Amino acid sequence: MTRPYTEVAVGIVLDAEGRMLLSTRPPGKAYAGYWEFPGGKIEAGESVAQALRRELQEELGITIAAAHPWKVTEHDYPHALVRLHWCKVYEWQGALEMREGQQMAWQSWPPMVRPLLPGAFPVLEALARERGLPFDAAALGG
Questions:
Q1: Bridge partners (DSSP) listed for residue 105
Q2: Rounded CA separation 122/142 (Å)
Q3: In the 3-class helix/strand/coil scheme, how is 18-55 assigned residue by residue?
Q4: Contacts of 94 (CB under 8 A, 6+ apart)
Q5: Region for residue 139 given its phi and psi (left: phi exceeds 0; alpha: psi -120 to 50; beta: otherwise)
Q6: 8: which residues sit within 8 A by CB, 6+ positions away?
Q7: Confidence band of 1 (pLDDT split at 50, 70, 90)
Q8: Considering Cα of 48, then 49, then 50, then 53, what sign does the dihedral take?
Q9: H-helix segments, the chain
Q10: What ranges do the domains of the chain cover?
């Protein structure tokens, strides 16, 4: 029997220098302490953009301007089968606050934080290729 997908909105928040915002999974959640792009589950009746706006407000205390849909990937974790709706975010208001006890880091390429959440690797590869850079999953811990 196939498990149902958990639909997730994910933000690739980029600053003016092109750095990516990564944060750790909060304590008590699956893969706690792993670094990920921020986001969360899409609730019934929400669009991807609405879910991402809500999640980033709840988790980070920022209000995003626009969520630019970019890619959709899937990952089968032991605890959930997820469909990840990736959006790029270039503008937001508010000061970043880690409201769930997580850590955050702005990362240039390649990201230096470890461990990285496995579901992020396809998008990390796409980001490297988009920048005309080589991608080495092993070097990133994947």
A1: 22
A2: 10
A3: CCEEEEECCCCCCCCCCEECCEEECCCCCCHHHHHHHH
A4: 61, 62, 63
A5: alpha
A6: 39, 40, 41, 42, 82, 83, 84, 85
A7: low
A8: positive
A9: 48-60, 121-130
A10: 5-135
pTM of the model: 0.95
Q: Both ends of the chain: CA-CA distance in Å?
A: 28
Question: Which amino acid is it at 40?
Answer: G
Q: CA dist 67 to 27, 72, 90, 115, Å?
A: 27, 14, 8, 26
Q: Which residue type occupies 142? A: G
CATH for the 5-135 domain, from 3.90.79.10, 3.40.50.150, 3.30.1360.10, 3.30.70.1350? 3.90.79.10
**Measured between alpha carbons, how far is 89 from 71 in angstroms, rounded to an integer?**
13
Q: What is the mean pLDDT of the chain?
A: 96
